[in-house]
Amino acid sequence: MVSFDDMMDLAGGAENVVAGIYLRIDGDVTGSMFFVLPVEQANHFIQSLVQDSSVDFQTGEVSELGASAMQELGNILSGSYLSALSDFTSLRIYPSVPALSVDMVGAIVSFGLVEVSHISDYVIVIDTAITEENTPNGGSVKGHFFLLPDPDSFEAIFTALGVQ
Q1: pLDDT tens digit sequence for 42-100
Q2: What SS3 state is found at 65?
């Protein structure tokens, strides 16, 4: 868990432009989840995935396939993390359909902060690295997941984890 300010710093500062995937979570725990990647990392990963070197999230030159691949990356990873959290806490947690945005970190996550900031100054951060084996430079893509449970959900998570 980190403060909102630390979360912004982890993502390179509030004005750093990133490719962000947003999804809403429902079930026993509700809230918002964001997966943010530096634009260069998103470009590299999606260019490799769809075999299209013209994909550029910075300029908006992204094919429908490239945008869909980025959303699916966020969907698969968030589904894995939420499934693990659900298994670990025995809480039912369901993700919504992901949405893609390329903007400043502060603009992307401010939507989720509005509701949570009334009750808490903290967010759950999951650092993420995807490494492709057998590539010359390690082929690593590094991003962050920010889980912002709604105010009532903090208590449900902590109770399930045995934290007072």
Answers
A1: 998 899 889 999 999 999 889 999 999 999 988 998 999 999 999 999 999 999 999 99
A2: helix
Strand pairing report for 122-131 and 2-3: antiparallel
Domain tally, the chain? 1
Taking all residues of the chain, what is their mean pLDDT, rounded to a whole number? 86
- Residue 158's CB is within 10 A of a number of other CB atoms, namely 13
Long-range pairs of 68-74 with CB within 8 A, sequence gap ≥ 24 = 70/19, 70/21, 70/42, 70/46, 70/100, 71/21, 71/98, 71/99, 71/100, 72/98, 73/21, 73/35, 73/45, 73/46, 73/49, 74/21, 74/23, 74/35, 74/98, 74/100
Residue with tokens 């939420």: 82
- What is this structure's pTM? 0.84
CATH of the domain at 57: 3.40.1550.10
Write out the residue range of the structural domain in which residue 114 sits.
2-161
- Residue 77 φ/ψ, nearest 5 degrees: -65, -45
Secondary structure of residue 34 in the 3-state scheme: strand
